[in-house]
Design a protein that fits this description.
alpha/beta; 32% helix; 27% strand; elongated
């Protein structure tokens, strides 16, 4: 409604015209209208309660080119504010207690109403991870994955969690109302039942069966679509998301850029940036950014995921038929499951791990990232670090930023896409040292090592140590070269001055707060500020996470340099250009070695066995030609070309730094 509009009571002639058009009202004095109101645009309308009506003068044209005149026909409107240039038609029961903004279209709906005071989904408890509710997260309009992570998983910080929960309740109370809202330029068609739902601007709802107690937050830059057959209760849906095709939602938060469709079913779950759920089922899951499940037979239950792709038939179990569904699973960022995989909770799967087969023992691979977890003869076999040489892992890391569909200028989740970071490299240090310890404790070279209900073959252990060290060298070299780029040093003293970190923050352990990678110390300081009442609102918490994300690269060098000193066994005061050259050579070797492994892994996709099924009615030549037409030639493949170009670029970059170091006076 235009705030500058002048409202007045109906003129006697307008009342006569409305009555002639089949309109009824128990008290015409309760209706006020904007200047320019045209009573001819209201036909067969029952008005009750207090009503405000805007101007109806325009004509809307839909995507098919069909024109519809603004106004109200065949509807019962109770206690509503109707903006200008609104079209409302064929309402089976009524629209009650709603503020409807300008340029809204509502047609062929059953009942849209607000019943009593509602917080519109805000403050709803979602029993995530633990079905009994012990890790419940109260949702609100702008919940981030990082805030939810703290609430669900930092229960040891009792006071901080309680204060955050109170902030959410305070916010929920502040938005509670007896009146619903439908934002400007929204379109609601063929919906049976909408109760206590706040609908943001530019929302499109078409064919939903029932929406109850929720909020749809969107903006003109990134609308929301709610499609046919959808039933949602106690929910919040954020900008750019789609919920469609008979999807069932109960007690869920759906973040920005998500798609839940094709009969998907979810309850007591949180979905954050760019998640996708199709066909399958989710129960009590924390779906961090880029959690994707496509298959009808897939169940995700009682676990946290991020950057995850679930294979067909993936399943987990969160109880052992004793004390009920109390167990939880942790699948750290980048993990995947293959078809028909199964994991018994409780378990913890390390970053970028591929889970194949069925695993009936509780296990923890958190210190062994980039691994394969394979079932063989009912045993769980771990192959440490092997995913570092997988071209699929690199492809995933490249595709995630490209698949960020969020157009909202305000991003709720602060997503760090880096494959190698202080978080994953710390895990590699742990993995390298753990494997060395397993080897040392055995006293001799063993064919198989046992660890946390898993078996590690001797050859795999040796290879894991090598791959982790290579990954470590690559990351530390990356940070070093970035720190020293574009600076011409004259003396070792100048070099040492540049090597010294600009701040203390960044040392020690880093954590992944469901997409946001940050020093554990920074997270602890935030929680200290919350406990000490230096941070008092959910908006301030969100701003703290944004600042952490912005500071990542400043803090990364502090961590990397601390590790370089530890690895080299000397302080910054003892480093010279000669040491930098040595580290750069080590980095070049690691980068080229890993790229060559990726190159050879990509080649497997173009061997003869991969051509099986091609050239259906021809011989070997036809098979090869058909394969190349569909899959392309190996040397012209984009991923292969990118690997080759990466080798050239990194070699040049390393050589350039070495040349600059050679000019430093001893």
């Amino acid at each position: 409604m235009d705030p500058n509009s002048n409202f007045r009571k109906l003129a006697a002639s307008e009342i006569e015209k409305l009555a002639a058009n089949g309109c009824k009202c128990d008290d015409w004095n309760r209706i006020v209208v904007a200047e320019g109101f045209d009573p001819d645009r209201c036909l067969n309308v029952i008005f009750s309660g207090y009503i405000m009506l805007g101007r109806f003068s325009k004509t809307h044209v839909d995507n098919s080119g069909v024109s519809i005149r603004c106004g109200i026909t065949n509807a019962h409107i109770h206690n509503c504010t109707i903006g200008s240039e609104v079209f409302i038609s064929n309402i089976g029961e009524y629209i009650a207690n709603y503020d409807i903004e300008d340029d809204v279209i509502i047609k062929d709906c059953g009942k849209i109403f607000t019943d009593g005071v509602s917080s519109f989904g805000n403050g709803t408890e979602v029993a995530v991870l633990n079905e009994t509710g012990a890790r419940s997260v109260r949702i609100w309009d702008r919940l981030s994955a990082h805030q939810a992570y703290i609430i669900a998983l930092y229960r040891h910080r009792i006071k901080a969690v309680q204060k955050i929960e109170q902030m959410v309740m305070d916010y929920s109370a502040s938005v509670s109302s007896e009146r619903g809202k439908i934002g400007k330029e929204s379109k609601i068609c063929s919906c049976r039942h909408i109760r206590n739902v706040k609908i943001g601007p530019c929302t499109h709802i078409d064919g939903a069966i029932s929406l109850n107690e929720g909020t749809i937050n969107c903006c003109s830059e990134d609308p929301v679509f709610i499609g046919p057959g959808v039933i949602m209760e106690h929910f919040i849906v954020c900008s750019g998301s789609t919920v469609s095709e008979s999807t069932l939602i109960d007690k869920c938060f759906i973040g920005q850029g998500c798609v839940l469709s094709k009969h998907y079913s979810a309850e007591n779950s949180l979905f954050f940036a760019n998640c996708g759920g199709y066909h399958g089922e989710a129960c009590s899951i924390f779906a961090g950014p880029y959690t994707v499940t496509h298959h009808k037979s897939t169940l995700l239950i009682a676990a946290i995921f991020s950057f995850m792709n679930a294979g067909s038939g993936s399943n987990q179990s969160n109880h052992m038929y004793k004390l009920g569904p109390i167990h939880q699973g942790i699948m750290e960022r980048g993990s995947k499951t293959t078809s028909d995989s199964y994991v018994l909770w409780p378990a913890r799967i390390g970053p970028y791990t591929l889970v194949m087969g069925r695993h009936y023992k509780n296990m923890d691979t958190s210190s062994l990232p980039f691994s394969y977890l394979i079932e063989s003869n009912d045993e769980s076999i771990l192959v440490p670090g092997i995913n570092l040489r997988s071209v699929g892992t690199i492809r995933d890391a490249q595709k995630w930023p490209a698949r960020d569909v969020r157009k909202d200028p305000v991003k709720l989740d602060q997503v760090n896409f880096n494959l190698l970071s202080p978080y994953t490299i710390r895990k590699m240090f742990e993995g390298r040292d753990l494997l060395r310890k397993l080897k040392s404790v055995s006293g001799s070279v063993s064919a198989t090592y046992s660890y946390n209900n898993m078996l590690i073959k001797g050859a795999s252990l040796e290879r894991g140590i090598e791959l982790y060290q290579t990954g470590i060298n690559k990351f530390l070299g990356n940070s070093l070269i970035k720190r020293l780029e574009n600076i011409n040093f004259k003396t070792n003293e100048e070099l040492r001055k540049r090597l010294v970190p600009d701040q203390e923050m960044g040392k020690g352990e880093w954590v992944d707060l469901a997409g946001l990678i940050a020093p554990k110390q920074a997270v602890s300081m935030l929680l200290d500020d919350i406990e000490a009442d230096r941070i008092n609102s959910v908006e301030e918490v969100a701003e703290a996470f944004r600042q952490m994300h912005k500071s990542y690269y400043d803090w990364e060098w502090t961590w990397a340099w601390e590790r370089i000193e530890q690895e080299e066994g000397k302080s910054v005061n003892d480093f010279t250009a000669v040491d930098i050259v040595m580290l750069t050579e080590k980095w070049k070797k690691s980068v080229i070695y890993l790229d060559k492994l990726l190159y050879e892994d990509a080649r497997k996709e173009f061997n003869l066995s991969s051509m099986t099924g091609f050239g259906i009615d021809g011989g070997e030549e036809i098979k090869k030609l058909d394969f190349e037409q569909v899959r392309g030639d190996f040397n012209s493949n984009k991923v292969v070309a990118a690997i080759q170009e990466h080798i050239k670029q990194k070699s040049t970059l390393g050589d350039e730094l070495i040349e600059r170091m050679s000019r430093i006076k001893v």
